[in-house]
Design a protein that fits this description.
Pfam families: Asp_Glu_race. Its EC number is 5.1.99.5. The chain is of the alpha/beta class. It has helices at about 15-30, 50-70, 85-90, 100-110, 125-135, 155, 160-175, 190-200, 205-220, and strands spanning about 5-10, 35-40, 75-80, 95-100, 115-120, 140-145, 180-185, 205.
């Protein structure tokens, strides 16, 4: 594979989580892949609701626009399990843009016929349900389980959080009739190997899954289609705090 530059976007604004995601991605990246990791300048410190996702989606789009101005980025990864702003991000670039939930669902079905999702808070399970329906994986998923820990507990109370996640993964293994587990939070990226060792099942974590899919798409020369709904947005005026977006210089379809 020729040199590939993948930009990973953490949609929340917690720098320590961005750094942890970056280190996890570095461990999985091919030797020819350059990883850069960013986060929005403004937005929620963690993403745990529909409202958080709506705000963070704007930050994701802004980070893609920054990447396009920089140039030389071959693919983007949106590193939040809600895949916030994914389709909007795809409109802004020809580079592949991969959401970690969609990537994890795809890979889980390649190693098992059924999987369960273990996420952080129960309320975010509804968001995962919506994504399963949207992406066509609902019949592959047996159950969405929650460890009932806030996202930032993964950093602030890592030992207790790890214990709760493993306990819920073990319940999924014993009760759900599954062959694999999908971890439902980008902040779990550095826990995959340890959880898999404890649980004894394939454990799919979205950041790594999205990274490897991005590498594959780039190596195959596949890009985001600009025919149809993922074409570049039509130029128009924006007002108020988004007035600067009126000056976007996006390419025309090609």
């Amino acid at each position: 594979m020729t040199n590939v530059h993948i930009r990973i976007i953490n949609p929340n604004t917690t720098a320590s989580m961005t750094a942890a995601i970056h280190q996890s991605a570095l461990r999985q990246a091919a030797a020819s892949t350059t990883i850069t990791t960013t986060q929005p300048d403004a937005g929620p410190v963690s993403i745990e609701s529909h409202f958080d996702e709506a705000i963070s989606a704007v930050g994701v789009a802004e980070e893609v626009l920054k990447g396009e101005r920089e140039g030389g980025i071959d693919a983007y990864v949106v590193a939040c399990f809600g895949d916030p702003g994914l389709l909007a991000a795809r409109e802004l670039t020809r580079a592949p843009v991969i959401g970690i939930a969609e990537a994890a669902f795809h890979l889980a079905t390649l190693v098992s016929t059924r999987f369960s999702i273990v996420t952080t808070l129960g309320r975010t399970g509804i968001i995962a349900e919506h994504l399963l329906e949207q992406y066509g994986f609902r019949h592959h998923c047996r159950r969405i389980r929650a460890a009932e820990i806030p996202v930032l507990d993964l950093e602030h109370h890592p030992d207790a959080a790890f214990t709760r996640i493993v306990e819920e993964c073990c319940r999924a293994r014993n009760e759900d009739g599954i062959g694999a587990i999908v971890l439902g939070c980008g902040g779990m990226a550095n826990l995959t190997a340890d959880i898999s060792r404890e649980v004894g099942l394939p454990v799919v974590e979205g950041v790594s899954a999205a990274l490897k899919l991005a590498e594959s798409l780039v190596s195959l020369g596949l890009h985001t289609s600009k025919h149809g709904d993922l074409d570049y947005p039509r130029p128009k005026s924006f007002t108020g705090k988004f007035a600067a977006l009126s000056d976007l210089q996006l390419p025309t379809s090609r």
